[in-house]
Recover the amino acids of this structure.
């Protein structure tokens, strides 16, 4: 976008001249051939606002004329299709003419409206769905990780959401010696990597959610040339999708320094793509004990979006201390870009899933590696599938009567608990403990609190 900057000396001369000038003439001045100036403050040329936020479109704008002085009030604003209620990037154009008919060089401002409103909760439907497909059989485990997965039948589902309190993490497998007294050693590369995600499959597969990733540390969070922690330190959003078109592939720089997407060929003309938000943005570091609403929905045909709504910030001492130590910002609601998802948002039947996992670096397709790492007290308070019923989108509880279960590779290394959640609404407490079948919940973790007063 082309911008115009006027030298300070020129502005100064105009201000001095206008201050010494008497009242502006009432009619056009045929001898005045000098065009007025529109001055837009440097830090106002590109503005970001929240969805629905009011913005004074004359903020940071000044109109000056050599004869009339300050004529800001006569600036004409062309807003184009600007709508602060609709996320997107808009260009505002400013023009100005003095009484002599001289036109200023037009100036433009870019306004980005950030999406801040999460998808509203549809009503809950607990009745019978007459044409609902039966629960599918669970396939054989795919090797390479420790994971608990539940998945639906392929049916007229239109999305998925769940309310989740993030689990406690103990990582005990690294690429080198590590401090065994720490739950997570930030200075050594971890080889076990917790993740919690949901996904859908219409014509191709998509996964979205949170993976334990590297973060900035301390002063590096606020200085140029920051460095990431060697180890994963916080849950951060990701979105993975398989598609032929609209891949959105590119680096941070290609996406306004907000996010990056890398893709590789999947065969058959499809690409497998993985998106991550910028690792520097601590607003989207989620920690054990945070309670969030995770949403996967289709805003338009053949596209999907991950949304994360923060419901409660963790009061677990370790998480509170970690945020304070490194100066991380309080967690905020997250919105991924829309990504390609063939078949979603149409009448195409789709299958949906939720997964709790300990992924293992470089081990996909191989037998899961024994480990003493553990991920405990992941609380899915509620879980819903979306479905159109009588022309209205509803949340349908994603409970045990609607999903098949996989605990891989060993059934007894997973504990599924019910305390503090409503299983009728898809609630479940999940512990992954690969080292032993004998699991006792940690006394140091707070008890699971019911999400709603009438839970039982």
């Amino acid at each position: 976008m082309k911008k115009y900057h006027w030298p300070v000396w020129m502005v100064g001369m105009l201000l001095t001249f206008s201050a010494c000038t008497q009242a502006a003439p009432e009619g056009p001045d045929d001898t005045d051939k000098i065009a007025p100036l529109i001055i837009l403050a440097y830090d106002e040329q590109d503005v970001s606002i929240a969805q629905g936020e009011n913005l004074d479109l004359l903020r940071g704008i000044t109109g000056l004329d050599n004869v009339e002085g300050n004529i800001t009030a006569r600036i004409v604003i062309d807003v184009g299709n600007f709508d602060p209620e609709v996320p997107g990037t808009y260009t505002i154009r400013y023009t100005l003419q003095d009484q002599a008919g001289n036109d200023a060089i037009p100036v433009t401002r870019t306004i980005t409206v950030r999406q801040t409103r999460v998808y509203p909760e549809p009503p809950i439907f607990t009745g019978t769905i007459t044409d609902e497909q039966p629960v599918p059989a669970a396939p054989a485990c795919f090797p390479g990780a420790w994971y608990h997965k539940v998945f639906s039948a392929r049916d007229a589902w239109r999305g998925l959401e769940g309310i989740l309190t993030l689990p406690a993490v103990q990582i005990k497998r690294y690429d080198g010696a590590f401090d065994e007294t720490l739950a997570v050693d930030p200075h050594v590369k971890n080889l076990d990597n917790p993740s919690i995600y949901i996904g859908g499959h219409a014509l191709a597969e998509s996964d979205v959610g949170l993976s334990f990733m590297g973060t900035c540390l301390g002063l590096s969070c606020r200085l140029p040339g920051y460095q990431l922690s060697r180890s994963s330190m916080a849950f951060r959003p990701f979105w993975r999708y398989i598609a032929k078109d609209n891949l959105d592939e590119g680096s941070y720089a290609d996406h306004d320094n907000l996010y990056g997407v890398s893709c590789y060929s999947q065969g058959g003309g499809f690409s497998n793509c993985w998106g991550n938000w910028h690792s520097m943005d601590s607003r989207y570091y989620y920690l054990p004990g945070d309670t969030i609403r995770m949403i996967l929905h289709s805003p338009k045909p053949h596209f999907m979006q991950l949304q994360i709504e923060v419901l409660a910030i963790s009061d677990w001492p370790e998480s509170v201390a970690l945020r304070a130590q490194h100066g991380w910002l309080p967690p905020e609601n997250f919105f991924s870009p829309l990504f390609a998802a063939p078949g979603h948002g149409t009448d195409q039947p789709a299958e949906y899933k939720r997964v709790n996992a300990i992924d293992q670096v470089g081990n996909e397709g191989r037998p899961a590696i024994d480990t003493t790492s553990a991920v405990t007290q992941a609380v899915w308070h509620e879980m819903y599938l979306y479905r159109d019923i009588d022309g209205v989108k509803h949340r349908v509880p994603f409970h045990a009567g609607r999903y098949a279960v996989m605990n891989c590779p060993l059934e007894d290394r997973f504990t599924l608990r019910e305390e503090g959640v409503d299983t009728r609404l898809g609630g479940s407490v999940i512990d992954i403990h690969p080292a032993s079948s004998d699991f006792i919940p940690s006394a140091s973790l707070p008890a699971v609190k019911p999400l709603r007063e009438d839970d039982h």
The domain at 8-114 is CATH 2.60.40.10 (Immunoglobulin-like). The first strand starts at residue 37 and ends at 40.
